[in-house]
Amino acid sequence: MNQKRKYRHFILFCLVLDLLAVVFLGYRYLDRKIPDEIHIDRNSGLDFSSLSGIPFVSFGDTITVSGEGSYQLPCTLLGKIHFKDIKVTPTEADSILVSGSSVGIYMETSGVLVIDTGEILSSDGQIQDPAKNLLKPGDYIVALNQQKISCKQDLIDDLKDLDGSAVTVSIRRENSLVPVSLTPVQDSSGKYKLGIWVRDDTQGIGTLTFVTENGKFGALGHGISDVDTGNLLSIKGGKLYCAQILGVQKGAKGKPGELSGLIRYRNDNVIGTINSNSENGIYGNFTGNFGSDSQQSIALRKMKIGYKQELQVGPASILCNVGDGVKEYGAKITRIDMNHEDSNKSFVIQVTDPELIDTTGGIVQGMSGSPVLQNGKVVGAITHVFVQDAASGYGIFIENMLDT
């Protein structure tokens, strides 16, 4: 009898766990499907047709008006259980100049980025590591003995004046300035070193997403992080260049492909100045200072913005350049996540165009920032490729790229 009671308790316990799991997963599903905040065209009004297929969910007729020109729209389950309030912000349905052109990126860090510390063979034959546990990857050196450090060459020049005495290195760590005392080590060649690996710039190829009518541009759809530390680079500025695509390394399962290109770092090839590197892309001023050769490779077309609630699972297209100019290629949106923790992973897109798949295998590195179009509007940009499925990747809503 005791055995049966224990068995019944065990079954009941399992059922309760299953019920809790269903409730939790159901809540997560609905939270991802229903946005916390949306923008709407004030001239067209509120349209929730894309969300009407979500089961058990209804949207109230009453609203709570805020002081920002926006309002709160109640969302309920089964018509009675309050689920969340959606912030609705009426805006003008702006148009932007959509690109898809390949661009060269050059950025300088704000200070000198510490990649790692390292050992030094000193002049007396000892192995020393003077910066170990004092500096760490991701620190930015901004001064040495109160002398400003703007680039790696500044640091190299200041190290020539060292005599073995302790120095004070001012670093920026997680938005705080920290003074660190280091004692340089004289190596076997007689030079004094701090035992650190540093970097002060980065460059590469990406895709220009848009230019606004007031001359601001957005590209990539994600920020640029240091390859060694994985941290978002803190920059003091940079330039955007026209880039010529010379070849494509085709992507395959487990092996992301890549666009190979040529960037001419000349003043007549500059098309913009970079002033921001954020989670949602790189931004700056579109200057238009480019030569006649470069001008042919910058494609811009005026398009209306499509807000995230307008996205639908189904056919779409992308604009990109894989060597023969900007073209529009077929694709489809397979999943939409209204509230993803990473805003640049808000939907999943799959390349379906046979020509693009034959050329690149799908999405390759260098295509980040390629505009995604649906129903005659620009709705987002490509940001990532799936390593195990080169034809698919993540995208960011265009409204998130514009919200900077």
From TrEMBL:
Q: Keywords, A to Z?
A: Hydrolase, Membrane, Transmembrane, Transmembrane helix
The family database entries (PROSITE patterns) matched by this protein are listed as:
SPOIVB
EC assignment: 3.4.21.116
InterPro entries in the cross-refs: PDZ_sf (IPR036034), Peptidase_S1_PA (IPR009003), Peptidase_S55 (IPR008763), SpoIVB (IPR014219)
Residues in Peptidase S55 domain copies: 176-404
Please name the source species: Blautia acetigignens
Decide whether keyword Transmembrane helix is in the record. yes
Q: Which leading EC class covers this enzyme?
A: hydrolase
Instruction: Please state what the protein is called.
Output: SpoIVB peptidase
Q: What terms describe the molecular function in GO for this protein?
A: hydrolase activity
Q: Name one Pfam family in it.
A: Peptidase_S55
Transmembrane segments in this chain: where? 12-30
